[in-house]
Design brief:
By secondary structure, the protein is of the alpha+beta class. The chain contains 3 helices and 8 strands.
C-alpha cells in the first residue's frame, strides 16, 4: 500500500547533494526557501521540507505527496542511500499513539551493511 507521504532521516548529508538527487529522481527543484529552522522547495510540484539537524547529525527530508516514485519510506531510503552513500533511517511503517512508545522507537537503517531494524530513541 502506498504511503500518503515520505519521511527519511539522512546522516551528515549535504543539502546540495540531496537537491541534485531530488532533481534527478523527481524533477527540477525550486530554490530552497528558509522558513525558521526548515527549508522548503518543490520538486516537480511535490512539496519538500528539509530540517537540518532534526535529531543530532540526522537531517529530516519530508516529501508531502503520494505521487513520488517510492511506495513507502523504505523504498525512498534505499534509493537515497544508493545515490548519496550516507546512512538513512526511516520508520518501518505507520505509527499511532495506541501502539505505545516502544513501537515508536523501532526504525529501519539503510547503510553499507544493508537494511536492518534498530531501536532509535529520538
Amino acid at each position: 500500500m502506498r504511503q500518503p507521504d515520505i519521511e527519511i532521516y539522512l546522516k551528515d548529508a549535504d543539502q546540495e547533494d540531496v537537491t541534485r538527487w531530488l532533481s534527478e529522481a523527481l524533477g527540477p527543484c525550486t530554490p530552497w526557501q528558509r522558513k525558521g529552522q526548515t527549508f522548503k522547495c518543490e520538486a516537480d510540484g511535490i512539496p519538500v521540507t528539509w530540517l537540518p539537524n532534526a535529531v543530532g547529525k540526522w537531517h529530516s527530508l519530508y516529501l508531502e505527496s503520494d505521487a513520488t516514485p517510492w511506495a513507502d519510506d523504505l523504498a525512498c531510503a534505499k534509493a537515497a542511500f544508493a545515490t548519496l552513500g550516507v546512512e538513512i533511517r526511516c520508520a518501518p511503517g505507520g505509527w499511532n499513539e495506541e501502539e505505545g512508545e516502544e513501537q515508536a522507537d523501532r526504525w529501519l537503517s539503510v547503510n553499507a551493511d544493508g537494511e536492518k531494524e534498530i531501536i532509535w530513541r529520538t
